């Protein structure tokens, strides 16, 4: 059975418009959007819940920190929503569209990877929702992709970039650096075609050229003796 590795879409991938999400969730009512403004949240939560009131005041600072992180992290999706990477991201959002307000950290998922059958061939990654394990009706999204080399200044231990055949790519943030290493290993380069446990057959070495037999040197003394009277 393929191992499922927990992770999520990078939080620096911009959220798509609601009309693009699978299922087209209903828009948030105006009253709810106004009530979600941090000042109103603070005023309504202050009498009863001090922790929620403080969290409301910290909301603009969290947004600023997320913007600064996006600038340092760089783009986390390339190719647009119609590319293979965009469809993969939309599938992850589709698993979570009913929990829209909890998507600030990127929608989570369980990922299964398989490397290509031959060297240089693209592998496959399957994303499933983090709930419903063992349920045959559980949704999934499979795409052919490989590993993208992340620029040195933007590498993170838990970051894994998926590169798709059309040139698009997206970034994932795994739960731990160990999970990221497991996903990289599962999607890594294809194994050699040699049978494991067998040593490669040695190439036949060319047979050495036969040594040339040296010609016997003439007996100068005998020949000189024959010529004397």
Characteristic terms for this protein:
about 230 residues, alpha+beta, disordered C terminus, six-stranded antiparallel β-barrel
Tally of separate helices: 6
Order of helices and strands: EHHHEHEEEEEHH
Number of strands: 7
Structural class, from secondary structure content? alpha+beta
Radius of gyration: 33 Å
Describe this structure in words.
With 229 residues, the protein is an alpha+beta fold. The protein is 30% helix and 17% strand. The protein has helices at 30-35, 38-45, 50-73, 84-96, 177-186, 220-226; strands spanning 5-9, 77-78, 108-114, 123-128, 141-147, 159-163, 169-174. It has a six-stranded antiparallel beta barrel with strand order 1-3-4-5-6-7. The radius of gyration is 33 Å and the shape is globular. Residues 190-201 and 219-229 have low confidence and may be disordered.
Give the SSE layout.
Layout: E1 5-9, H1 30-35, H2 38-45, H3 50-73, E2 77-78, H4 84-96, E3 108-114, E4 123-128, E5 141-147, E6 159-163, E7 169-174, H5 177-186, H6 220-226
Antiparallel strand pairs: 1-3, 1-7, 2-7, 3-4, 4-5, 5-6, 6-7
Brief summary of the model shown:
With 229 residues, the chain is of the alpha+beta class. It has 6 helices and 7 strands; from the N terminus they run E-H-H-H-E-H-E-E-E-E-E-H-H.
